[in-house]
Amino acid sequence: MRAKITYFLTAAVLVVYFVLVGSRGLMLLQQGTLLTVTFGAAVLILPVIGIWFLWMNTRFVTRANQLATELEAEGGLPVDELERDQYGRILRDSADEVFARRKAETEDAPGDWRSWFRLAVAYHDARDTPRARKAMQRAIALHAAGPAAEGPARV
């Protein structure tokens, strides 16, 4: 719940920022000189990129949460079996062991979004965020395609 609140607060701050920057860009465009129109157009690009980025991330998180909810209802969420140090941090060897099992599971069923979801969690636990995101995107795509989606295992 704390992560959701933080996400929404950050998104709200970004939207306010985009509005402020956009209004400044429009003010520059209204000046009408070559220099201010050029700067105004350049300034307006920032909110457009930011809104697109925020939209894509929000869509990704929403879809990943939907998969988690569905997997939880099926009883298929990965169990936290990771060993931790005295400070609560995941031990690297433990994360690697769980990752190896999740990777083998995904290679055995490359068209199953559930295995890709669990692999994404294992990547995240192993602190490999880019691959975790790609694996989750693959899980989302497989889920959206339906049960007939079979494809080569790509990690």
Description:
The chain is an all-alpha fold. It has five helices and no strands. Helix 2 crosses helix 5, helix 3 packs antiparallel against helix 4 and helix 4 packs antiparallel against helix 5. The longest helix has 41 residues. The protein is elongated. The two termini are 30 Å apart. The relative contact order is 0.09. The C terminus is likely disordered.
The succession of helices and strands, N to C, reads HHHHH
Using the alpha-carbon principal axes, give the shape: elongated
Helix content bin = over 70%
Beta-strand share of residues = under 5%
Number of beta strands? 0
Mean pLDDT: 89
Low-confidence stretches: 149-155
Number of helices: 5
The first-to-last residue Cα distance is: 30 Å
Structural class: mainly alpha
What about the largest sheet? none
Cα-atom Rg, whole angstroms?
21 Å
